[in-house]
Design a protein that fits this description.
Shape: globular
Structural class: mainly beta
Order of helices and strands: EHEEEEEEEEEEE
Number of helices: 1
Strand content: over 45%
Largest sheet: 6 strands, antiparallel
Radius of gyration: 15 Å
Amino acid sequence: MILDRIEHAALYAPLSARMKAALEFLGRPDLATLPLGRHEIDGENVHASVQAYTTRDRGEGRHEAHRRHIDVQCILEGGERFSIAPLEALRPLVPYDEARDAEFRAGAGPEVVLQAGQFVILYPHEAHQPGLHPAQEPVAVRKVVDIAYSLGSPYVE
């Protein structure tokens, strides 16, 4: 996991061409006003989803993990708590679905709080449960989730 502020995103561009494209998208001047939904960056290799929702209690969610892609999640408005854990530290809940590139697991992991202007890069070995209340009360969140697909390795090519 990498956690940083959006103004430092260019530091991580050398990780790969696809990661560079995903991070450059976060530098768009119109990012805060993009409509909700999917936005193409580099065809099926890299795309983004603008989302808006209200945070939830830990018991209302589950950890997700991916095998073929890396998530880059950036908070635009509000804030949320993430639980992040190695796959082996969690119990399988829903088996891996290759078509969705997702599996779901139960358990708890260390937590981090992201505020507006911060992003996190999550690799395939890191299960994550985003969208949790950052404190006791629900918070409205607007965020971008960039998806950078790899070709079966834990690193984006």
